[in-house]
Design brief:
Keywords: NADP, One-carbon metabolism, Oxidoreductase. The chain has about 150 residues and is α/β, with parallel strands linked by helices. About 15% of the residues lie in helices and about 30% in strands. Bound molecules: NADP nicotinamide-adenine-dinucleotide phosphate.
Length: about 150
């Protein structure tokens, strides 16, 4: 997310950071990922080597290679670690259910229409922060928060 909590615009990402995408792949591969229907549409296909869950209120929706669910209670195979991967609506509803937040912080304000919720400092402790990285003239860092 950007300094002003933007995570998306026009149902796509406002930036392209290949290092961040590679890190996302490395962290989530082999695990379960949960996303909103709009994020799934922006990606356009199931992400390989991960169990893909898509949240929707549309009980008719069927997608090959994806578990379409209407509630987190529908997630099976709870032996696997579960990553909530967006977008804004889903982050807002599920942030309180998470133990850890893995945030890529873009060090500038960006215009957008999808947002990460405010991270409440009385709930979340910043436990790790990478050095500032730079790609395509965009400065960013990786932050890890744990629930207090
Ligand atoms: N920067 C990042 O890390 C990042 C990560 C992911 C996404 N994004 C961006 O975020 C944007 C998309 O976010 P968004 O907030 O617009 O949409 P979203 O959270 O991806 O999906 C919203 C949809 O999820 C379903 N949904 C929401 N709450 C639900 C519930 N309680 N039960 C069942 N289904 C529920 C609904 O689908 P139905 O309408 O089908 O019922 C809703 O329309 C895009 O711009 C995307 O590129 C950014």
């Amino acid at each position: 997310m950007s300094e002003n909590n933007v995570i998306g615009i026009d149902n796509s990402l406002p930036w392209h950071l290949s290092g961040d995408l590679k890190r996302f792949k490395a962290i989530t591969t082999g695990h379960q990922i949960v996303m909103g229907r709009k994020t799934y549409e922006s990606i356009g296909k199931p992400l390989p080597n991960r169990v893909n869950f898509v949240l929707t209120r549309n009980s008719d929706l069927k997608i090959d290679g994806v578990h379409v669910i209407s509630s987190l209670n529908d997630i099976s195979d709870s032996d696997k670690k579960t990553f909530i991967i967006g977008g804004g609506e889903i982050y807002s509803q599920l942030i309180d259910s998470c133990d850890e937040l893995l945030v890529t912080k873009i060090h500038r304000e960006i215009h957008g229409d999808a947002f990460f919720p405010m991270i409440d400092a009385s709930v979340w402790s910043l436990v790790d922060q990478s050095e500032k990285l730079n790609e395509n003239d965009i400065e960013f860092s990786y932050l890890t928060y744990r629930k207090i």
